[in-house]
TrEMBL record:
Entry-linked InterPro entries: DEAD/DEAH_box_helicase_dom, Helicase_ATP-bd, Helicase_C-like, P-loop_NTPase, RNA-helicase_DEAD-box_CS, RNA_helicase_DEAD_Q_motif
GO MF annotation, one: RNA helicase activity
Organism: Cannabis sativa (Hemp)
EC class of the enzyme, as a word: hydrolase
Family matches, as PANTHER family: DEAD-BOX ATP-DEPENDENT RNA HELICASE 50 (PTHR47960)
Protein name (Swiss-Prot/TrEMBL): RNA helicase
Motif (Q motif): 73-101
Polar residues: compositionally biased ranges: 1-18, 38-48
Length: 447
């Protein structure tokens, strides 16, 4: 008897073929042979499915340990749908980051999650992947709602969902304030499986009876600390009333103030707590300050532009008026520059965001509208033209550089009035912001 396992497993199939050749087999057996041969052909052809994917070139830039210190898991270890895996690999994801390793398997079990992780470590995919996996494509109902605080983040998150789920027949919709309510209502008459948006608009549509959430089994709150500010929290609490009692809630953010903990105690059921932040500042970001007088700031900025190796930069101001004035000054200095702030028309903001993300311009001047979760990996320099008033704002601003563990540089222009804020933010974040040296080594922010 042949002990080869492969030979043994093929024995019955060979037996069917031999009987068929002898003419002593029933029609049903012949059908079984055909099905077996067909299934074998499918299996053999599907084994090289990864080889046929259009995978982008590997990102060889240096990464910090907060995205490389993984357990060694693979996306295939989570038994995801093959169509979803295809989207994951074609998006350029190679292996799960630490926040993805912690979140994805827990989310797939249906448990509530309260997750704290640094900006730029793969938070968006950590909830998009389990959301897409759990959606039933054959059920024409909203099954996942993802809440975000800004339209820009809503557009970015929905794009990630569409790219990851491009081989799935899943319909993704974005809805936020400042856009046509009528268009949203008409869109909701078509199938929608996953809804991304801001709390006020989704609540409005739910109250009108056009956004039906009785089959919504998962609610995701990205940038949860901002969503639980007085501006949004009442809308979110009302919105939860439209969800089924057995819904799953996933909360993600870089900071967890008291409001988040209170919300967790009230609405999450035995949540799984994930905390991947030993300290609040991002690893891989080198931080400097330069003491300047207000009238010297533009000259100092010009010097930074001439000396730094900038892929793309974001320059933050504390007011809308200063954003427009500074953008004009930068343009007059001869540098390409876009600007974006909350008082701009929505379509204009969308176009600026899209063009900057696609590399049409090197520098962007903005207010804190732009600090929440926006992911533009080419940004390696952040400049606080106006120093922020609190540590949370500073953290989110600085997090715009060094996305997904790459290196970045933050330069803060400090006036005499800012000196106490600088000291306080250093203390609260447990970090050191050093005085800017005459020469900055490119290796600390360009590798």
């Amino acid at each position: 008897m042949n002990a080869n396992p492969a030979f043994q497993s093929r024995g019955p199939q060979q037996q069917y073929v031999q009987r068929g050749q002898l003419g002593g087999v029933a029609d049903s057996s012949a059908d079984e042979v055909e099905k077996t041969v067909q299934s074998e052909a499918v299996d053999s052809s599907s084994q090289d499915w990864k080889a046929r994917l259009k995978i982008p070139p590997a990102d060889t830039r240096y990464r910090t340990e907060d995205v490389t210190a993984t357990k060694g898991n693979e996306f295939e270890d989570y038994f995801l749908k093959r169509e979803l895996l295809m989207g994951i690999y074609e998006k350029g994801f190679e292996r799960p980051s630490p926040i993805q390793e912690e979140s994805i398997p827990i989310a797939l079990t249906g448990s509530d999650i309260l997750a704290r992780a640094k900006n730029g470590t793969g938070k968006t995919a950590a909830f998009c992947i389990p959301a897409l996996e759990k959606i039933d494509q054959d059920l024409n109902a909203i099954q996942v709602v993802i809440l975000v605080p800004t339209r820009e983040l809503a557009l970015q998150t929905s794009q990630v969902c569409k790219e990851l789920g491009k081989h799935l027949n899943i319909q993704v919709m974005v809805t936020t304030g400042g856009t046509s309510l009528k268009d949203d209502i008409m869109r909701l008459y078509q199938p929608v499986h996953l809804l991304v948006g801001t709390p006020g608009r989704i609540l409005d549509l739910s109250k009108k009876g056009v956004c039906i959430l009785k089959d919504c089994a998962m609610l995701v709150m990205d940038e949860a600390d901002k969503l639980l500010s007085p501006e949004f929290q009442p809308s979110i609490e009302q919105l939860i009333g439209f969800l089924p009692g057995n819904r799953q809630i996933l909360m993600f953010s870089a900071t967890f103030p008291v409001t988040v903990k209170d919300f967790k105690d009230r609405y999450l059921q035995k949540p799984y707590i994930i905390n991947l932040m030993d300290e609040l500042t991002l690893k891989g970001i080198t931080q400097f300050y330069a003491f300047v007088e207000e009238r010297q700031k533009v000259h100092c900025l010009n010097t930074l532009f001439s000396k730094l190796q900038i892929n793309q930069s974001i320059i933050f101001c504390n007011s809308v008026n200063r954003v427009e004035l500074l953008a004009k000054k930068i343009t007059e200095l001869g540098y390409s520059c876009f600007y974006i702030h909350a008082k701009m028309l929505q379509d204009h903001r969308n176009r600026v965001f899209h063009d900057f993300r696609n590399g049409a311009c090197r520098n962007l001047v903005c207010t804190d509208l732009f600090t929440r979760g926006i992911d533009i990996q080419a940004v390696n320099v952040v400049i606080n033209f106006d120093f922020p008033k609190n540590s949370e704002t500073y953290l989110h601003r600085v997090g715009r550089s060094g996305r997904f563990g790459h290196l970045g540089l933050a330069v803060n222009l400090i006036t005499y009035e800012d000196r106490f804020n600088l000291y306080r933010i250093e203390q609260e974040l447990g970090t050191e912001i050093k005085q800017i040296p005459p020469h900055i080594d490119q290796a600390i922010y360009c590798r």
